[in-house]
C-alpha cells in the first residue's frame, strides 16, 4: 500500500528587500499617490515636491544614502524606504510607504530596520524623520520601534502639510 504525504501548507513568503532602481520611479509615484489618497487634503505633486523620485537610485546614491523597495507578487513596488545623512552621525529616514493592501505583514518594520542597519554601518548614532500629522498609523509604528516624537513643522506644499519630528538613538 502506497502512503501519500499530506501536502504541507505553504510557508509564508518572506519579502525580499532590494535596492530601488531608477526605473522604479513610476511605481514609487503610484505607491505614494495611493497612500496619500487615504487622507483628505493630501496630494502628490511629483514635479515640485518629489524631485528625488525622478531618478530615485541616483538621487540617494549621490548623498551616500540608500533607497529600498519590496515587490508584490506581480513585481510591482508595494513598499519602500530611503535613508540619507544630513549631518555627521545623523541619518534621516525618508519615503516609508506601504501599499494599503500589503499592511499588517511587517513590511514597515522590516524596512525601518533595513534603514537603521544601513545607518549604523555608515556610522550614524541617531535616526530622525518627519511624518505628516495625518499619518497616525505610521506614528504608532515609529513609537513601537523606539522613536520619540519631537517637534513639529509646517510645510508650504500643496497639501499644506504639518509634520511631526521623530528621533531614535541607534
UniProtKB/TrEMBL annotation:
Domain N-acetyltransferase: 15-170
Assigned keywords, A-Z: Transferase
Organism classification: Bacteria, Pseudomonadati, Pseudomonadota, Alphaproteobacteria, Hyphomicrobiales
Pfam families, sorted: Acetyltransf_1
Protein name per UniProt: GNAT family N-acetyltransferase
Amino acid composition bias (Basic and acidic residues), ranges on this chain: 10-20
UniProt entry tagged with the keyword Transferase: yes
Organism for this UniProt entry: Microvirga arsenatis
Domain of life: Bacteria
Keyword Transferase in annotation: yes
InterPro entries found in the cross-reference section: Acyl_CoA_acyltransferase, GNAT_dom, NAT_camello-type
Chain positions covered by the region annotation Disordered: 1-20
Amino acid at each position: 500500500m502506497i502512503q501519500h504525504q499530506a501536502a504541507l501548507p505553504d510557508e509564508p513568503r518572506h519579502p525580499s528587500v532590494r535596492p530601488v532602481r531608477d526605473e522604479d520611479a513610476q511605481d514609487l509615484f503610484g505607491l505614494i499617490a495611493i497612500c496619500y489618497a487615504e487622507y483628505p487634503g493630501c496630494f502628490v505633486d511629483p514635479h515640485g515636491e518629489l524631485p528625488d523620485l525622478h531618478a530615485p537610485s541616483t538621487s540617494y546614491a549621490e548623498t551616500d544614502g540608500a533607497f529600498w523597495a519590496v515587490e508584490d507578487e506581480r513585481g510591482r513596488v508595494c513598499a519602500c524606504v530611503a535613508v540619507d545623512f544630513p549631518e555627521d552621525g545623523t541619518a534621516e529616514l525618508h519615503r516609508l510607504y506601504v501599499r494599503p493592501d500589503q499592511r499588517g505583514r511587517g513590511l514597515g518594520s522590516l524596512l525601518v530596520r533595513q534603514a537603521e542597519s544601513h545607518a549604523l554601518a555608515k556610522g550614524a548614532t541617531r535616526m530622525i524623520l518627519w511624518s505628516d500629522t495625518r499619518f497616525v498609523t505610521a506614528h504608532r509604528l515609529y513609537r513601537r520601534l523606539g522613536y520619540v516624537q519631537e517637534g513639529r513643522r509646517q510645510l508650504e506644499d500643496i497639501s499644506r502639510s504639518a509634520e511631526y519630528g521623530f528621533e531614535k538613538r541607534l
